[in-house]
Amino acid sequence: MLTKRIIPCLDVKDGKTVKGVNFENLRDAGDPVELGALYASQGADELVFLDISATLEKRKTMVELVRKVASRINIPFTVGGGISTVEDVSALLDAGADKISINSSAVKNPSLIDALALQFGSQCVVVAIDTRQHEGKHKVHTHGGTRPTDIDTMAWAKEIESRGAGEILLTSMDHDGTKAGFANELTAAISSKAGIPVIASGGAGTMEHFIDVFSTGKADAALAASIFHFREIGIPELKSFLQKASIEVRI
Question: Which candidate in 130, 176, 212, 220 is catalytic?
């Protein structure tokens, strides 16, 4: 059985790690380079770096900051934010990223997924889905969660897999930052139909929430931010807790 992955997320704005609730009311959570090094030393399986305002501000991800983070870690490193071309991806991989995450640019131009998978391999391409319920249906959002679309989340998940994405990073905006638990029903619905790994994001608040998202939600990996940034849960303690609950993790 494949081990379940624990992935801290660095949401970066203006060079600092930030965290909010439902994508709003952001507060400073520390230096991304130091946090990345800390999480790698604590046994995180991967690290995700999202330049959360890059698309909104119509600029590219901060390549030099990515380079600094990459120089301090020895675990797989995914970078997202403002990526819209093959050249963008080349620059980030050169800076030390192992994988890239796209969202708004993939919705705007779905063929970008095909192009990146062809150029760099599916294992390099993560497509992030920011989703929120509207009138009982889950709809895809873009531009850092600020722009709703009419795209059905489940249909989009199927399409991005068919186009060559290697992983889905699924963030429930309704759960994000609430610490009330992951969107297990939605995660399970997508995980059970997807032939590629699904990373669940949004809502982690307790160690039990991770058991729930791996068992009920059928997620392959769980991503969290504030509980790690503000030292509410330690990665070694979390992994030990999961192991005792018969969840396979890498210790």
Answer: 130
Q: Residue 113 is which amino acid?
A: I
Confirm whether 98 is a catalytic residue. no
The answer to whether 65 touches 86, Cβ cutoff 8 Å, is no
Lookup result for tokens 């497509």: 127
Spatial separation of the C-alpha atoms in residues 182 and 197, rounded to whole Å: 16
* d(C-alpha 45, C-alpha 209), whole Å: 18
Per-residue pLDDT of the chain (251 residues; tens, 9 = 90+): 689 999 999 988 877 777 555 545 455 557 889 999 999 999 999 999 988 666 555 556 688 899 999 999 999 999 998 899 999 999 999 999 999 999 999 999 999 999 999 999 999 999 999 999 988 899 999 988 889 999 999 999 999 999 999 999 999 999 988 899 999 999 999 999 999 999 999 999 999 999 999 999 999 999 998 899 889 999 999 999 999 999 999 99
Q: Rounded to an integer, what distance in angstroms lies between the CA atom of residue 241 and that of residue 15?
A: 33
DSSP 84-146: -SHHHHHHHHHTT-SEEEESHHHHH-THHHHHHHHHH-GGGEEEEEEEEEETTEEEEEETTTT
Residue among 11, 45, 212, 220 flagged as catalytic: 11
Tell me whether residue 11 is one of the annotated catalytic residues.
yes
Token representation of residue 136: 């009982």
Which residue type sits at 184? N
